[in-house]
Amino acid sequence: MAVDPKERWGARKAASRRASILTIAHEDVETPRTTVYKLSNETEVVREVEVLWETAQRAFLAIGRLLVQAERQFRGSFEKDIISRLPFNRSVAHMLRTVAEKVEQGYVPEAELPRSYAAAFRLVTLEPEALEEARSRGLVSPHTPRSAIERFRQELKSQRIAASGEAALLAVKRRDLLSRLERAKREVEKLSQELAELDSLEASQDHS
Q1: What is the CB-side half-sphere exposure of residue 6 using CA atoms within 13 A?
Q2: Residue 105 pLDDT class (50, 70, 90 cuts)
Q3: Which residues pair with 30 in a beta bridge?
Q4: What is the phi-psi region of residue 123: left when phi exceeds 0, alpha when psi lies from -120 to 50, beta otherwise?
Q5: 177 and 83: one domain?
Q6: How many domains are there within the chain?
Q7: pLDDT of the residue at 104
Q8: CA 49 to chain centre
Q9: Which residues are CB-neighbours of 98 under 8 A, at least 6 positions away?
C-alpha cells in the first residue's frame, strides 16, 4: 500500500492504515522507513529521532519475547535450528532473551527499560539491591545510556573489592598485570613474525 510522503511516520494509527507492520510474538512493531523527508525545524528532527529510537526498543524487546517463546516451544531444536541461523550471534540472542524474561517476571517494567538492548541487559542483570540503588540514582530509565550503567557497575565492583580488604585489591592488580603481560607477549610474537617475514623477503631479494 502506498504511503503519503507527507504523513508522519510513527504516528499512532489503526493497524489497517499502517504502512509497514512486523508482528513478533503477537506484538505489532512498526518497521522503520528508509527514506528521510525534509524536516521543517530542529524540534521535528528530535521528534523523528525519538520515534525511531522508540521503535528500535520495541523491536529488540519483541524479538527477545519471540526467542523466549521459541525456546519453550522448540526446546530440542532451539540451539541448532534457530539460534545458529539468526542474523546475530548467540551472545546477542542471550541478551535479548534475558531482557524479555526479566520484563516478563516484572523485574524491570518495560516502560523503564533503556532503549538499547545492551544497556537493558546490563541493567536487568543487576542484583536486586544494586537495581534499587540504580533506581534511586535515576538510572532505571529509557534515557539511560549503556555507558552510565557500566560506570555504575564498575563503581559497585570497586566497592566490593575495597570491602574485601588489601588482599583482594592485590589479587585484582595481579590478574590485571598478568592479563596485560599476556597481551604484550602476543604482540611480541606478532612483531617477531612480521620481522622474520621481512628478513626472509630481504634475503630473497639479495639472492635475485
Answers
A1: 0
A2: very high
A3: 21
A4: alpha
A5: no
A6: 2
A7: 94
A8: 19
A9: 64, 121, 124, 125
